[in-house]
Structures are given as C-alpha cells and as structure tokens.
Amino acid sequence: MTLTIFCCLQKQNIPHKMKKYLIIICSIVLALTTNAQSKQEKGQGKVVKVTATNYNQEIAEGIVIVDYWAPWCGPCRKLEPILKSLAAEKNIKIGKLNVDENKSFTTAKKISTIPTMLIYKNGKEVEHLTGLYTKEELTKILDKYL
Prior knowledge:
Shape: elongated
Number of strands: 5
Number of helices: 6
Number of domains: 2
Helix content: 40-55%
Oligomer: single chain
C-alpha cells in the first residue's frame, strides 16, 4: 500500500516534504490496520456462535465469555448489548451458546439456569456467573483476568 501511494505521489506535483509526511501517515495507518486485523484474526473483540462442536476451539486462547442463552429469555436479551460492548472495549471474545440448540451439551456442562456465563482464560474456566449482570459488574470481574 505504501509503495502504491509513493508511486502515485511521484506523479503528482506535491512538494517533497509533503510527500514525506503523507508516506509516514500512510505507513502509520497501515500498521494500525494490520494490528487491528491480527487481533480480529485471533478472535478478540468479537462475538461468535459457539456449539458443542467448536466449544473447545473457541475458548482455547485469550479471555472468552461463553454466554448460555435462549431467544425466549428476557434477561439473556438484556445481557446481549452489554456483552457486545465489552467485547469491543475489553478486546475479548464472546461466545454465544444457544441452550435450545445444544441441549445435551448444556446438560453435560451442568447449566440449569440462564443466563449463565462461563469466563475462560486460555482454555481454563476462571469464573461461573449466573443471572443478569451490569456492565460495571462484569467489567470489575473481567479486569481481574486482563
């Protein structure tokens, strides 16, 4: 990208000093974009669908909150925007596991109440939360592991 911009700048009638600043700015933007993309590739800062099949893979790296939920659950619906916000702000992954679509897996994990959130750090469960939490409460809990 920087090379393309440099070539385009050569053809323009722009002072040399200005070209230098434009190349530096473009390089910084490219570096920031690449860093953001690599975080997204690691699954950080996003919400993903979790099932019995991909569960272990999704919790393996970083801080992950697995939210056991159902579409008919009012508190689960209230929790969703809070979790999305935390995913972006704290650069963590939120895994959404629909209990109706994963009944036997949910039973095997001994989840009997929703919403339930399991917090993992590099594949190990560090917190088991049941019920509706505020953003502030979840932030305080997450800060222990970040």
